[in-house]
Amino acid sequence: MTAVLRTEVSSPVSVGLGDLIRLKPAGETIRLSTPRVRASSVGGHLSPFKGRGVEFDESRPYQAGDDLRTIDWRVTARTGKPHTKVFREERNRPVFVWIDMRATMRFATRGVYKSVVAAEMAALLAWSAIANGDQLGGLVFGDSEHHELRPRLGRRAALRLLQLVADSSAWSGEAAGGGGVTSHALLRMTRVTRPGSMLFLLADFADLDGDAERHVRQLAARSDVFLIHIYDPIEAELPPPGRYRIQTAMQTFTIDTSDAAARERHRNAFVSRRDRLLAMAGMPGVRLLSVATNEDPYRVLLQHFSKA
């Protein structure tokens, strides 16, 4: 499937369950994997993670990108060359999709709302996981709601998750809540995920703090973590000097971009958030994907994962 998925979505500001179900054929063409996970047959993944459900399979020469935690020091000492341990997972790998549906996600100046991008990404990842024979779980949260789904196999697991996304009160314009929501939602993930899981965190990460970073580090200690940063182009760079009317889900207002100092502060704020995410992606087991509201999420995923 090579068509741009924007034509599949009925509205740039909301999605329905039908929109997300229509992404099933595209999602099924994506093979979720990492440099440290080798896919064999459907439902069978080789993973380097230790813990319940994995067993040692073999040692092989170290390759760029391998997790330093999995170095086989005995073989390395014996051969004089670095080797990595590879572990075989004994059960279907859990895939968790963590989705931010708060008010800050209901915004875009190009393409579709950030929340629509998150919903599309969630659908593609969900259908990919099910097609790969993985268990699918999730956590969907907004400013005033929080839903957790424990991992399950099969199409019904995907439909449960996508129904939660489609039914989210975010589409009806719930008010923005207080700070610390991202940190709390990540804390919940540390309590429900299993060793050897693959975690996809879909958000604009507008309120990253030290607690959130600590929770990501805890998650990465036993799972693969993908930070999927969703942003609107205007968040990265203001338009040329002038006056512009901006409409969000909550209000309409005018911005003046003539002040060079204000433009620089705006740019620096985005760069600071991006640099913080890049620093987190430097942790073992953490990777960063970025997607703008005017980009096709299917193409973005294919840049990082192979076709099935």
Can you give keywords for this protein?
alpha/beta, 308 residues, 2 domains, 10 helices, six-stranded mixed beta sheet, single chain, 14 strands, Rossmann fold, 24% strand
CATH class of the largest domain: Alpha Beta
* Second CATH tier, the architecture of the largest domain: 3-Layer(aba) Sandwich
Secondary structure: helix percent: 25-40%
Radius of gyration from the alpha-carbon trace, in angstroms: 20 Å
Low-confidence stretches: 35-53
- What is the number of E strands? 14
Average predicted confidence as pLDDT: 83
**Largest pleated sheet:** 6 strands, mixed
| Proportion in β-strands | 15-25%
Instruction: Give the number of helices.
Output: 10
CATH topology annotation of the largest domain: Rossmann fold
| CA-CA gap between termini | 11 Å
Question: Can you list the strand order of the major beta sheet?
Answer: 8-7-6-9-10-13
Instruction: Tell me the overall shape.
Output: globular
Structural class: alpha/beta
Work out the count of structural domains.
Answer: 2
Look at the structure and name the CATH superfamily of the largest domain. von Willebrand factor, type A domain
Order of helices and strands: HHEEEEHEEHEEHHEHEHEEHEHE
